Amino acid sequence: MGLFSAVLITLFKYVDTFLHELGHFFAGKLVGYEIERVVIGDRKPIFSVVVFGTSFIFCYGFGGLTVPGTRVKISKLRLSVFALGGVFFQI
After folding, report:
1. CB distance 11 to 74 below 8 Å
2. Is 58 helix (H, G, I), strand (E, B) or coil?
3. What is the pLDDT of residue 61?
């Protein structure tokens, strides 16, 4: 039971991180950001895919990062929507 629980918790954490970063991705697109890449995990890459011009990189480990492009002027409102997008997408 211990190994199964560990695998299940790890899988849940990975999917949860993916949903959180997807929230940043959609919020960034909503406010006009070009998203350069979305990274899920923090270690060696497993695979990557390009969707709508954005690289989604899946790695071993936990954590995530959504990197907006620099072509659009960053305002406080846009940055706030982008930052809160991850939290609201998880709800």
Report:
1. no
2. strand
3. 87
Mean pLDDT split into 10-residue runs, the chain, 91 residues: 88 93 95 93 93 93 89 85 91 77
Q: Which residues pair with 65 in a beta bridge?
A: 39
34 secondary structure, DSSP code = P
How many C-beta atoms surround the C-beta of residue 52 within 10 A? 9
Q: Is the dihedral of CA 32, 37, 39, 43 positive or negative?
A: negative
What amino acid occupies position 37?
R
Of 35, 40, 36, nearest in space to 62 by CA: 40
Instruction: Give the predicted TM-score (pTM) of the model.
Output: 0.89
Strands (DSSP E) found in the chain: 35-40, 45-51, 54-59, 64-68
Q: Which two tokens stand for residue 13?
A: 């954490």
Between the two ends of the chain, the Cα-to-Cα distance in Å is: 29
